[in-house]
Amino acid sequence: MQILSEKRIIQYLEEQRTFTATVDTGAFFIRVNRYVPMLCTAVHAGHNLPRSLEKKILLSAEERRYEEDPFADEIISSFPITLQGLDSRYCYDLNRSPDRCIYEVAWNKKVWHRELSRKERKESLEKHASYYRVLDAVLSTLEKKFGHCIVYDVHAYNYQRRERNNPLFNIGTHCVDTVRYDPVLSHLKKQLHAIDLPNIDNRVGFNEVFQGKEEQASFIKRNHPDSLPINFAIKKVFMDELSGAPYPLILEELTEALKRALSYNAAYFARNYAGKRLQRSRFIASEDTAIIRRVDNALFKLARGIDTLLYVNPMNLLQEKKRFFAKGFHYNPQFVYRQLDIDPFVFRKNLYTIPVDDIQDVSIRQMYRGTIDMLATRIDLLTTIGSEDFLYNSLRYYGEPRQADARLARFFISAPPLEEAGSSDISAEQCAQEFREALKGYAFSCRIETSDRIVTRAMVNNTRKAILINKRARFSATEVKALINHELGMHMVTTMNADLQPLKIFKLGLPGNTETQEGLAILAEHRSGNLTLSRLKALAYRVIAVQMMVQDYDFSRTFKSLIEDYGLARDSAFTLTSRVYRGGGFTKDRLYLTGLQKVLQLRQSGQSLEPLLVGKTSADYLSTIKEMMEMEIVMKPRFSPAAWESPVAPEPILDYLLKAAL
Predict the structure, then answer these.
(1) Whole-prediction pTM
(2) CA neighbours within 13 Å on the CB side: how many for 659?
(3) β 19-23/28-32 pair status
(4) For the chain, what are the domain ranges?
(5) Which CATH architecture has domain 2-283?
(6) 3-state secondary structure string across 289-333
(7) pLDDT, tens digit (0-9, with 9 covering 90-100), for 614-651
(8) Residue 474 φ then ψ, to 5°
């Protein structure tokens, strides 16, 4: 960050240079990351006092901070052009006219124990004037370039002393031509109203707390009639109003939510008033990719190779299956697992020393923080494989079936059977050969191998870029095609796309990636015309089996229930029960149906699923990934599932069942 004179700042603005600077008087901070018809200001975010005034002020730092707007600067930090006061409003209030900007009494408290000298007043007034000269230069530059500009002046207000139903967001419109700009205000209200903060009621009000009569809005109205000034006050729910301490989780969530709301609103304003169809991501500050890559590299170096399925697959599955059958099903298999070669204490310690807070963009920062928390939970999961604590950690990591999940599973199970041709007479080696033929349709290579050390019928080993097919399994022709579209057409495609990304977080996987990736993989089966009702029922049985396991059924009881209550064959029941009970209680299988449901809902809402193909992504971060693609931090996916390139018309009854499940 530079220290620049006011004159040099104005020169940079006139030359349309990008820069970040504090004015040499220390009065304010300005950042121009890119030129867009949007400015965000935080005039009351400052807390500084010149030394000469520190000796004369009667109010403590805590008393001053109470009437200031702590964290308003942080809230606007994601936007391309920001201007914020650094001095306390008790020095001079930037939102008051020059003749009223120096307080004698404020909120019924005398401010100075000794009158300010003429020199001190002159210095404060000059800082006030300097701010407005720079504000004028910013708006002149933006109006010259775009014709119009929208200005959000962000404040925070104390609400506990107000005996009324205070809005979470108050929009002051006194200086706004509300007839001309009513569509923008309505759009902004809608965006703000959609913000959902935990345990906080959201109501958007107009002119209830402040009317927007203050100096900055008045200045813009007088001098820049083609700019729209919006005085924007946030209820101090993100901090302890009295002590000034932040509530970090709420502050972070609020900052991200406002980043989305204001950038959408600014894009709407630009499109309808400035005649510029700018992507919403243009109204978000471009990130320093070097910082992101430094964090990303540190995370990947630490966490690569930690593959849950590699450790949770039993090494003695076949032997225990024989023993279980030989004992007439009155035996709980004693599975043996690969040893973990990681020191969990060191791993966690190193994980939480990664400098994620260096990332400025709040959405990207949250994505990395979430991934770090996920990896910490994963290491807890892996260190407890084979113990009683594994189920607890699996529930933390994958969750447990909700009542709605169980209802959805029973909905599919109760559906009348459809005629599905084909016998299971294809061997694992023949299936592998079919995979190799299908691989020729993709512009990448991977290994196709058979294995007797996996529980599932097939799986992708991301680390080795290999597809493993269970040697003991046999398949129908439709099942082989479905597996090809599931494992090769989706899981291997996202593995290969992740390998091409400059950011390796998409190889590690985002929080919730299992649910999303499995949902996408089943969608690939559906779009290829190879999803069957039998397959949906098999996924539904997984949910039921997980539910029984969570309800304290032992292995034998769940196995018998799947045979006696649901009609599964012995081998199918054993495979399913083993999937669920491996490790000590593996709840991952509950996610397949919910994952399918979520991606179908995204498609139905008209959202593009392309960003989810860039790697091991999660629907929870769809908007963030889309932003990163628009900012060219993330590459568009090079490879696509064959089923998405040439989809097949779905079977009508199956399509009806899936739509009914939404």
Answers:
(1) 0.89
(2) 8
(3) antiparallel
(4) 2-283, 292-660
(5) 3-Layer(aba) Sandwich (3.40)
(6) HHHHHHHHHHHHHHHCCCCHHHHHCCCCHHHHHHHHHHCCCCCCC
(7) 999 999 999 999 999 999 999 999 999 999 888 888 78
(8) -130, 150
